[in-house]
Design goal:
Elements: E1 5-13, E2 18-25, E3 32-33, H1 38-42, E4 62-65, E5 70-73, E6 76-77, H2 78-84, H3 87-96, H4 102-113, H5 123-127, H6 135-145, H7 159-185, H8 198-207, H9 218-230, H10 238-248, H11 253-264, H12 272-283, H13 289-297, H14 318-333, H15 340-354, H16 356-361, H17 367-378, H18 385-405
Helix pairs in contact: 3-9, 3-18, 6-7, 6-11, 7-8, 7-18, 8-9, 9-14, 9-17, 9-18, 10-11, 10-18, 11-18, 12-17, 14-17
The structure holds s-citryldethia Coenzyme A.
S-citryldethia Coenzyme A binds near residues 307 and 309.
């Protein structure tokens, strides 16, 4: 990782004294003020709930320019990767920092393929859940339980064990997610088929049944692979920051990724694709859109347009542009281009992009806006959308976890606070209260 470079210091006038803090530059993007010595030199903390102006780490994996709508994986634009690459090649790029040569990609693909099966005894975990359990509850539990099976890849200080744990999770998350889907439908689990590629195998495990032959449709498999690729990583988002924080305590890799899955579940984050589709269904028809737009504008109404807005993108989310192309391909293939949900989505997008409120607030469709439409058209239940997001993001979480462990500045994450509670209460006996 090319480390940051120091530039001219920043002076901070504290009133009673001035202190100098280093200003650091990365390769692209905003400089940072290095405040590591601030508290020791001033008895002051910084205050930044939600970390809107705080860089938590150095990273060389993904770069986002929210104003320009730029997303780079190891310097390669998401648009170019979506057009020319595929998910497993992008996994290699995110993990190792370079595009693989042909033999490297073949070896990586073979290693992932040979780890797709779960330990047979793990199947009992699924049976412990109600059939109507949310699949995120299942995958969060089963992912964490992997640490009780793979004792030979728990030592975070052993590079070989870190690598094996990473390959296992990239390989097994599709199986875990597919099993959770099958369990919710009451159909038997379908073992991985190693003759299929990553996306084809996922569709096969989800949609094939023992009683019939199933050949994954190549257009659907390409769309699935593209959804995985577009969701693979996204800098220091909430779930990735959760994985980094869990990893900073030395927790095992399976537990760290389970923590990331738990955080992603929220509707403000990875749960937005499920919430977005539920919202589009609630709107139902184009003529009802204005009512919901007014609700979104109403300060007293907690309703938000799911699939719109982003903490970083204050222009379009480049992923949603690519996702929209896939949505058109899939819906045309399935003959559902007149899908009423899609009509509502496209009209909602048109209005939102012209409406002064959304323009002023810089609210554009994000990655979750179109992914749900594609997944629903493929036949997935809405509760499966976030598990699929988690499957795809696992490689991003692992890449950041690996980077964090190899960072010489790495220490346990432990933020401070601005305390506003009572000071120095004395204990009062219960009879005197
Ligand atoms: C993901 O971080 C990542 O990178 C995440 C992600 C990834 O790949 O990991 O990109 C994936 O999580 C995408 C985002 C999915 N979430 C949603 O679609 C849920 C709906 N969106 C919002 O909840 C919201 O936009 C957030 C949470 C995404 C961003 O919230 P911010 O940056 O904290 O913005 P904010 O809440 O401060 O909103 C700014 C203003 C507010 O109005 P004011 O208080 O300034 O008057 O915009 C308004 C908000 O009320 N606003 C919305 C809105 N989102 C923000 N108004 C209506 N509808 C919305 N969707």
């Amino acid at each position: 990782m090319t480390s940051s470079k120091s530039k001219k210091n920043v002076s901070i006038d504290l009133g009673h004294k001035c202190i100098e803090l280093p200003r650091l530059s990365g390769s692209i993007g905003p400089d940072v003020i290095d405040i590591r010595k601030l508290y020791n030199n001033s008895d002051l903390f910084t205050f930044d709930p939600g970390f809107t102006s705080t860089a938590s780490c150095e990273s060389a994996i993904t770069f986002i320019d929210g104003d320009k709508g730029t997303l780079l994986y190891r310097g390669y634009s998401i648009e170019e990767l979506a057009q020319k690459s595929n998910y497993l090649e992008v996994c290699y790029l995110l993990l190792y920092g370079v595009l693989p040569k042909k033999d490297e990609l073949l070896n990586f693909t073979q290693r992932v393929t040979r780890h797709t099966m779960l330990h047979e005894q793990m199947i009992y975990f699924f049976r412990g859940f109600r059939r109507d359990a949310h699949p995120m509850a299942i995958i969060c539990g089963v992912q964490g339980a992997m640490s009780s099976f793979y004792h030979d890849s728990l030592d975070i200080n052993d590079p070989w064990q870190r690598e094996v744990a990473s390959i296992r999770m990239i390989a097994k998350l599709p199986t875990i997610v597919a099993y959770a889907y099958k369990y919710s439908t009451g159909q038997p689990f379908v073992y991985p088929d190693n003759s299929l590629d990553y996306a084809e195998n996922f569709l096969y495990m989800c949609f094939s049944v023992p009683s019939e032959k199933y050949v994954p449709n190549s257009i659907l498999a390409k769309a699935m692979d593209r959804i995985f690729l577009l969701h693979a990583d996204h800098e220091q988002n909430a779930s990735t920051s959760t994985v980094r924080l869990a990893g900073s305590s030395g927790a095992n890799p399976f537990a760290c990724i389970a923590a990331g899955i738990a955080c992603l579940w929220g509707p403000a984050h990875g749960g937005a694709n499920e919430a977005c589709l539920d919202m589009l269904k609630e709107i139902g028809t184009v003529d009802k859109i204005p009512k919901y737009i007014n609700r979104a504008k109403d300060k007293n109404d907690p309703f938000r347009l799911m699939g719109f807005g982003h903490r970083v993108y204050k222009s379009f989310d480049p992923r949603s542009k690519v996702m929209k192309e896939s949505a058109d391909e899939v819906l045309n293939l399935l003959g559902v281009e007149n899908n009423s949900i899609l009509k509502v989505a496209k009209e909602l997008e048109r209005i939102a992009l012209e409406d002064d409120y959304f323009i002023e607030k810089k609210l554009y469709p994000n990655v979750d806006f179109y992914s749900g439409i594609i997944l629903e058209a493929m036949g997935f239940s809405t509760s499966m959308f976030t598990p699929i997001f988690a499957l795809a993001r696992t490689v991003g979480w692992i890449s950041h976890w690996m980077e964090m462990l190899s960072d010489p500045n790495q220490k346990i994450g432990r933020p401070r606070q601005l305390y506003t509670g009572p000071a120095y209460n004395s204990y009062i006996k219960i009879d005197e209260r």
